[in-house]
Amino acid sequence: MHPLDAKSSYLRAVILRHLGRHKEAIELLQTLVKGTRGVAVIHQELGQALHAVGRIDDAIDALREAVKINPKLGGSWKLLGESLHGEGEADEASEAFRQAMASTHTHPGIIKALDLVQKERFGMAEGICRDYLQRHPEDVTVIRLLAEIGIRLGIREDPELLLEDCLRLAPDFHLARNTYANALSQAQKYEKALAEIEYLEKVDPQNLSHSVLAASIEVMIGNYEAAVERYEFLTGRFPQTAQLQNSFGHTLKTLGDRKRP
Q1: In terms of C-beta density within 10 A (0-12 exposed, 13-18 middle, 19 or more buried), how is residue 59 classed?
Q2: Per-residue confidence of the chain (261 residues) as pLDDT tens digits?
Q3: Sign of the C-alpha dihedral computed for residues 19, 25, 28 and 29 taken in this order
Q4: Contact (CB, 8 A) for 87 and 244
Q5: How far apart are CA 161 and CA 159, in angstroms?
Q6: For the chain, which residues make up each domain, given as ranges?
Q7: What is the pTM of this model?
């Protein structure tokens, strides 16, 4: 495909996606993928369009290809993290979020801390983040990272307090609120966690990871009927998400076993 034709087709696909004509955008982008080689933004745009129509597994494949070609695509890393989180792939999702942060953060100490977290050297990463926050106390991305490290280390109260500070500074930081809900659930503060998720579902409805977290909490506390309702909604909206179907199946099996005499 001629570069000028590819560029005009790409711009048309972007416009189609923004107009909500996602299926047309996907068809055009899939043609572009076949007609070009190694163009990261085409795979990124395809991932965004696929995600918008609920084809999460396909979106993940496209986004993985985008960041493989260009690891500096912060938007692709962020959406990949959200998609993987919704699929229940917590570790890979966390790595994607860290890569998104690494693509935008400029401080060498934080880049080092992100590398240490990837290598599971959490103690050293924690020290770097705490030292950095003494001089930059309002950097909410690093506050959230430090809270995530605390959760990995099994610390209970500290991540909660950090995330409360983070959300006071940036109440619209949805990833931090999701992490806060996770920290609350690990501290067995389930009602508070579900309240945070209820808020997220209203203000960030396209991100299915919030509802997936809520469903998993409902399972943890034995509210299987409520979990089934959530999974029915999620699998109806995102029918091609394999991990979601698997979690739903386990919940239905557990509910069926409980109802047996």
Answers
A1: buried
A2: 556 678 899 999 999 999 999 999 999 999 999 988 889 999 999 999 999 888 888 999 999 999 999 999 999 999 999 888 777 677 788 889 999 999 988 899 999 999 999 899 999 999 999 999 999 999 999 999 999 999 888 887 899 999 999 999 999 999 899 999 999 998 899 999 999 999 999 998 877 788 889 999 999 999 988 899 888 888 887 776 677 778 888 888 877 765 533
A3: positive
A4: yes
A5: 6
A6: 1-85, 222-261
A7: 0.76
Q: Which CATH topology does 1-85 take?
A: 1.25.40
Cβ-count burial 71-105 (b if 16+ within 10 Å, e if not):
eebbbbbbbbbbbbbbbbbeebbbbbbbbbbbbeb
Residue type, 17: R
Burial degree of 18 (CB within 10 A; 0-12, 13-18, 19+) = exposed
Distance CA 261, CA 247 (A): 24
Concatenate the DSSP letters of all residues of 147-160 into one string. HHHHHHTT--HHHH
Q: Is 41 exposed, middle or buried (0-12, 13-18, 19+ CB in 10 A)?
A: middle
CA 90 to chain centre: 9
